[in-house]
Amino acid sequence: MNLAEWVKTKIGRCKILYAILAKIYHAPLASAALAKRSFLLFKSRSAFRALLASGKKYDLVFMHCLGGGTEVYVKNTLRGKTDYIVFKNYNIFGFQEIYSLEVCGIKTPFFIGADDIISLEKIAGAVFVENLCGYGDCDLILKTIAAFSAKISFKVHDFYSACPKVNMIRNFRYCGVTCDSSCVNDVGGRPYSPDRWRTMWGTFFERVDEFFFFSESSEKILCSIYKIPPKKIRLKPHDMGYFTPKVISSLPTNLNIGIFGSITSEAKGFSVVKSFAEFSRGKDYKIFLNGLVGEPDQDVFSKNENFVQCGPYKTEEIYDRLVSQKIGVVFFSSVWPETFSYVVSELMLTGIPIACFDVGAQAEKIKEYPLGKIIPGFSNESILKTLRECHAIGRERYDNE
Q: Do 292 and 310 touch, CB atoms closer than 8 A?
C-alpha cells in the first residue's frame, strides 16, 4: 500500500488527525489520550445512534481486551452466530478508558463512553459476561449490566470476581481463598479490600440468572465465597471436539520430562520450574519445555544441559513432540486452580502419563486419569519421585498391551 492509499483508509485518517490533535495540545500523554478519546467518540457517534435506532436485538458479550484462552473460547462460541456485539474495554495510554463495540457484520469497531453503556439495554436480547479482568471501573460496569432487563449469564473463566489478582497467588502459591485485611488491591486507581471487592461482585451476582462453570473445582471455589443458588449453576466443560489426537502406543525406557505451555508467570509455576531445572542439573533425564519461559536467558535455563527450550507449539504438534523428544511423562507445573485446563485435557487424549499439583481443574482431571498422579507438596524431591512413579505406571500399561 502506497502513502496515498494509506491516507485514504479510516485507520490512516484516524492516526493523522490524532497526531495533529496531540501536537496542538503540546501535552504529555494524559492530554494526548484525552484528544484521542474525543476523536474516537466523535467518529463513532453516528454509527452508535444508528445501532440503537435499528430496533434489532443482540447478544451482548462483555469481554476483556487481553487475549488468551478466554478470547479463543469466545470466538469459538460466536462462530456461526449473526446477532452479537462484543463489548471490550479500550485503554488509551493508561489515562483514558473507553469501550469498543465489535458488531457482527461490521468490520470496523466503534467506540462509546461510560455514559453510553446503559443505552445498550435497548438492544440487549441477552447478556453474557465472559471476563472483566483489566477494566478500570468494574463497579460502573457491573451496576450498569445489572440494570438491564435481559437475561444475564456469567462465565467463570478465572477468579477475578473473587480476587483482583485473578489467579489468587500469594507467596508463589495458591492462597486457598484465605484473604485478610492485608490483601488490598488497586483496580483503576481505587483500593479494594476483599470485603469491598466481594460485596461489589456479590451484589451483581444477585442479578445474574445463570452461572457457567467449566469444572467442579471452580464451582466449589466460587461457591465457597458467594451463595449461588444451585438452580442457577450450569456445569459445562469445554468442548474438545476441535482436537483429534494421535495416541501414543509405547513409552521410552528413559525418563525424559515434558512441560507443555508457557511458564511466564508464578501462576503457571515459574519459580517451581526454575528450581526444578536447577535441581535437575547432571541428573539422568532431560526436561523439554514446549512453550516460553520467563527470563529465558538465565543460566538455569540457557546454560543447563538438562533443560531444553523447544519453543511454542501448535495443538496438532503435540504427538510429534512427545515422540521426537522421547518424553516419558509430562509435568504440569501450574500452581493456581485452573478452571478447565485445555493443556491437560489435550495431553490426556494422547495417552501420555501426567503429574500435577493438587489444585484446581487440573487435579480434578488427573485424579480420574489412569496414567496420572498428584504431586504431594512442592519440593523438588517430591516432584521427581512422583514423575518417576507416573512414568513407571505408564511403562507397565504400555508394556502389557
A: no
d(CA 111, CA 99): 5
| Cα torsion angle, 261, 267, 270, 273, sign | negative
Cell, residue 162: 473473587
Residue 307 CB neighbour total at 10 angstroms: 23
- Alpha-carbon distance of 327 to 391, in angstroms, equals 10
Rg (CA), the chain: 24
Range among 68-82, 157-171, 175-189, 222-236 rated most confident = 222-236
Nearest alpha-carbon partner for 63 in 41, 45, 32, 85? 85
Grid coordinates representing 128?
A: 453474557
Backbone angles phi, psi at 191, to 5 degrees: -80, 130
> Tens of pLDDT along 73-128?
898 899 889 899 999 998 765 656 889 999 998 888 888 889 999 999 999 999 99
Nearest Cα residue to 99 out of 141, 151, 56: 141
Q: State whether residue 99 is helix, strand or coil.
A: strand
Inter-CA distances, 319 with 372, 390, 393, Å: 18, 19, 19
**Bridge partners, residue 128, by sequence:** 61, 153
Q: How far apart are the first and last CA of the chain?
A: 60
Over residues 349-367, the pLDDT tens digits come to: 999 999 999 999 999 999 9
Q: What is the CB neighbour count within 10 angstroms for residue 201?
A: 20
d(CA 20, CA 7): 14
How far apart (Å, rounded) are the C-alpha atoms in residues 238 and 338? Answer: 13
Sign of CA dihedral 386, 388, 391, 396: negative
Per the listing, cell 451496576 goes with 143
Which long-range contacts link 140-146 to residues 24+ away (Cβ below 8 Å)?
140/114, 141/62, 141/117, 142/200, 142/201, 142/203, 142/204, 143/204, 144/117, 144/118, 145/62, 145/204, 145/207, 146/203, 146/204, 146/207
Q: How many residues does the chain have?
A: 401
- CA distances from residue 156 to 153, 205, 211 in whole angstroms, order as listed: 10, 12, 7
Beta-carbon contacts of residue 247 (< 8 Å; ≥ 6 apart):
319, 349, 350, 351
